[in-house]
Amino acid sequence: MDPERVQTRIFRRGADRPRPRIRRGVALLPGLFTMANMFCGYACIVYSLRGDFETAAPFIGFAVVLDMLDGRIARMTGTASDFGVELDSLADAISFGVAPAILSFAWGLSPLGRLGMFSGFVFVSAAAMRLARFNIQSAAGGDKRYFVGMPSPAAAAIPAATVYVYPYGLHDYRAALPVLALVLVPALLMVSTIRFRSFKTIDLQSRRPYTVLLLIALGIMLIATHPRYVLIAMAYSYLASGFIELLITRIRRPKKITANPES
Predict the structure, then answer these.
(1) CA-CA distance, 127 to 12, in Å (whole number)?
(2) How far apart are the C-alpha atoms of 258 and 224, rounded to whole Å?
(3) What is the Cα 145 distance to its own chain's centre?
(4) Which residues lie across from 182 on neighbouring strands?
């Protein structure tokens, strides 16, 4: 028998074999993390309406962690889909848009009346526009090292970390005035063109694994021992990093040389 025919038959048999299907449990795993993210946003709203701000604020932090995991798990298991992307955006709109706005209103914006109510709505609108723009930019590609505009999880972490540090609430309108900046500044940064560093492109495998594990253990220790101060420092440091990045970019940008007409 001709060896070329034998080889052709082997290749055909390999091509005709059905590809191994992903188990249903693995395929549902990213969706479960997304639903858990959505539940954290819902729980934050419920506890905020009860006035239990100390319990409500950490749920946004849990939602941030879950939001970081669902996409990575989907890519690792090969279960990423358009449905998962849309579901993740809707969950983010609740956990990082509606939940922090209601938390901020119940905690400190309510003494301002309509001004406080519409300030919270500005935050929700900015988060929705930020998520819509992120989906469009992700489909079009671009520089994955940076986010254009502050990411909605980082913006939601600003009021959440602040409330977590001082969970007693504000009842005087004069004390509530600074809370406007707490929601309006992150809202404006979400729809701005200021670049914020993305940590998704950091390749942990190329570095020494023991160093990475040691840093992770150190971070867990700091959060476990001093959660309020470490989380608020992380939230505001990332907010400031956008302005630092903008300043560095303008300094490094070469100045245009204008020709002298008299020369």
Answers:
(1) 51
(2) 56
(3) 14
(4) none
Q: What's the burial of 80, exposed, middle or buried (CB within 10 Å: 0-12/13-18/19+)?
A: middle
Average pLDDT estimate for 177-200: 90
Cα–Cα distance measured from residue 100 to residue 182, given in angstroms and rounded to the nearest whole number: 10
Q: 261: number of CA atoms within 13 Å, CB side? A: 0
Give the dihedral of Cα atoms 38, 39, 40, 45; nearest 10 deg: 100
> Rounded distance, CA 51 to CA 230, Å?
24
| Burial of 214 (C-beta count, 10 Å sphere; 0-12/13-18/19+) | exposed
Output the pLDDT for position 77.
77
Contacts of 122 (CB under 8 A, 6+ apart): 183, 184, 187
Q: 143: helix, coil or strand?
A: coil
d(CA 87, CA 98): 16
The pLDDT score that the predictor gives to residue 6 is: 46
Q: What are phi and psi of 28, to 5 degrees?
A: -85, -10
Per-residue confidence (pLDDT) for residue 205, from 0 to 100: 55
pTM of the model: 0.81
Which residue, among 83, 68, 67, 65, has the nearest Cα to 28 in the 3D structure?
Answer: 83
**Cα dihedral across residues 104, 108, 110, 112: positive or negative:** negative
Rounded distance, CA 126 to CA 165, Å? 25
Query: What was the pLDDT predicted at 254?
Result: 63
Domains and CATH numbers, the chain: 23-252 (1.20.120.1760)
